[in-house]
């Protein structure tokens, strides 16, 4: 095998399937409240980088006002209200893709262990959990475990929660960078 090239897929070696959530199983029409929050914090603190901000938001369970406090920025109440409204709009827009629930049910009937492995901010967890309840065996949320995909530890932990080894898991997602587990 060449370095950096994954071996051919072998369904006979797969015991579990991990799924990214938003963009893979669930659709969301986002108004990007966390992007707007980043822009507000960046205006007060120009040295804050988008990647570090995203890591902070997705590896901690913080509300927008707590994010502001974390960065030492007092966010105006009007902005916090706007962000809350945007977030509520996001949460109301969440729905499974037309084939999601059927696909999970078929995989379960075929004997696969099913898991969720997603990088996301805490407010998005309850909606995903409610929609997918009873169809997955384990869920790993970055905001709860303090790690982000594609860190190898994330996939190892997800496999552990499913009771299989990482080499027996298939990861399905919408991003080769974040979801490109080996």
Explain what the structure shows.
With 182 residues, this protein is α/β, with parallel strands linked by helices. Helices cover 45% and strands 12% of the residues. It has helices spanning 33-44, 50-58, 64-70, 77-93, 100-109, 125-132, 142-145, 152-162, 176-179; strands at 16-19, 26-27, 95-96, 113-118, 138-141, 169-172. The strands form 2 sheets. A 4-stranded parallel β-sheet has the order 5-4-1-6, sandwiched between helices. Strand 4 (113-118), helix 6 (125-132) and strand 5 (138-141) form a beta-alpha-beta unit. Helix 1 packs antiparallel against helix 4 (77-93). It is globular.
Query: How many H/I helical runs?
Result: 9
Number of strand segments: 6
Strand residues, percent: 5-15%
- Global geometry: globular
Largest sheet: 4 strands, parallel
Largest sheet, order of strands side by side? 5-4-1-6
List the helices and strands and how they pair.
Blueprint: E1 16-19, E2 26-27, H1 33-44, H2 50-58, H3 64-70, H4 77-93, E3 95-96, H5 100-109, E4 113-118, H6 125-132, E5 138-141, H7 142-145, H8 152-162, E6 169-172, H9 176-179
Parallel strand pairs: 1-4, 1-6, 4-5
Antiparallel strand pairs: 2-3
Helix pairs in contact: 1-4
């Amino acid at each position: 095998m060449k370095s950096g090239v994954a071996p051919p897929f072998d369904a006979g070696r797969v015991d579990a399937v991990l799924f990214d959530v938003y963009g893979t199983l669930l659709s969301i029409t986002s108004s990007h409240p966390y992007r707007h929050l980043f822009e507000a914090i960046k205006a007060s603190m120009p040295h804050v980088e988008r990647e570090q901000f995203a890591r902070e938001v997705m590896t901690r369970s913080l509300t927008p006002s707590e994010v502001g406090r974390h960065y030492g920025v007092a966010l105006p109440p009007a902005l916090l209200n706007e962000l809350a409204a945007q977030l509520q709009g996001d949460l109301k827009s969440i729905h499974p893709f037309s084939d999601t629930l059927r696909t999970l049910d078929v995989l379960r009937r075929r004997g696969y262990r099913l898991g969720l492995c997603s990088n996301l901010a805490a407010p998005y967890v309850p909606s995903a959990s409610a929609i997918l309840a009873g169809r997955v065996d384990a869920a790993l949320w970055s905001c709860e475990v303090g790690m982000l995909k594609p860190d190898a530890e994330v996939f190892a932990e997800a496999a552990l929660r499913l009771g299989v080894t990482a080499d027996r898991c298939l990861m399905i997602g919408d991003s080769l960078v974040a979801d490109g587990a080996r």
